[in-house]
Specification:
132 residues, 4 helices, elongated, mainly alpha, 0% strand, single chain
Length: 132
């Protein structure tokens, strides 16, 4: 039987951010369906592009949730929050959704990073090999 590798420890910012992006991806996909259904895209753009863009942005959120351990993942999450708020130009309710999830994203990344720093400091204090 093969030996399993231990799971990588995830920080609070990574865990909280992944939860926010995961739930937001569902809402963004549904927002794409709303854009399609209301036919709010400008005339030369076919309405089905609402579904395509909603699916692409939702997929980008799922992928970003998987790379939040890197700084680029956090930055990509902020960019995606901006994209959702810009969707409010087409459907004003998307701006409200973007602001709500943006606030949750801000809390997850800022407070999560503070918790990670605190936990690292506690771990360093409790480490018997740190020479104290």
């Amino acid at each position: 039987m093969s030996e399993r590798r231990p799971r990588r420890a995830r920080g609070a910012a990574e865990s909280l951010g992944a939860v926010v992006l995961g739930f937001e991806s569902i809402i963004v996909f549904l927002g794409g369906l709303v854009i399609f259904g209301l036919r709010v895209l400008p005339d030369p753009i076919p309405p089905w592009w609402g579904i395509i863009v909603g699916t692409v942005v939702a997929s980008a959120m799922v992928v970003t949730a998987g790379v939040l351990r890197y700084r680029a993942g956090i930055v990509a999450g902020w960019v995606l929050q901006g994209v959702v708020v810009l969707g409010g130009l087409l459907v004003p309710a998307l701006a409200v959704v973007g602001l709500i999830f943006g606030a949750m994203w801000a809390y997850a990344t800022i407070k999560g990073a503070a918790l990670d720093r605190r936990n690292a400091a506690h771990a360093a204090d409790a480490d018997p090999t740190n020479g104290d």
